[in-house]
Amino acid sequence: MFGWLKRLWRGLWTPSTRWALGTLLGGGFVAGIAFVAVFNTSLHLTGTDQFCAYACHSQRTHVAPEWEASSHYTNRSGVRAGCADCHLAKDFIPKMQRKIRAAWTDVPGEIFGWIDTPEKFEARRLEMAEVVWAEMKANDSRECRSCHNRAYMDFAAQSSRARESHEDAAKSGETCIDCHKGIAHRKPDMPAEEGESEDFSL
To answer: Does domain 33-179 have CATH number 1.10.3820?
Structure first.
């Protein structure tokens, strides 16, 4: 029944009579380089704003316009935070974890039309936002901190409200997403919770 599996296993460990060891090693080396090149290129292309914001219907019609109207898209300093800056970690393992989650959630949402109309998207907006907020809370707003670092903030240059909030957050252990929801996308309608942190949407 498992004869083919035994033959495959035996074949993998039997020396080749047709190809020289150098040829096999060289071919494997070239194939490995080709795989890495294709993998890295695909990883890069699927992390661009062109792919994330404009390749999928729901992103192009519901999400991109909100981002384009935010201060993360156009601002006085000319520094733009793209999709990957907020939604993808810089380190390889967390980046791959997020890519895999997207393959199981975002891609089916597009394929099966769960979020392809404004009505469907709005119906799921809070659910989708809460997933992102939970991720950011769990990783201490890692992606925010790739640009914003509390240690480098000039509190004296901030408004009194912002200064007090950032100083309080540093003492209490709050992270960016505790207060800054609705930064690049419209914040979903949600019931106010007692003791909930004040929201500073930009």
So the answer is: yes
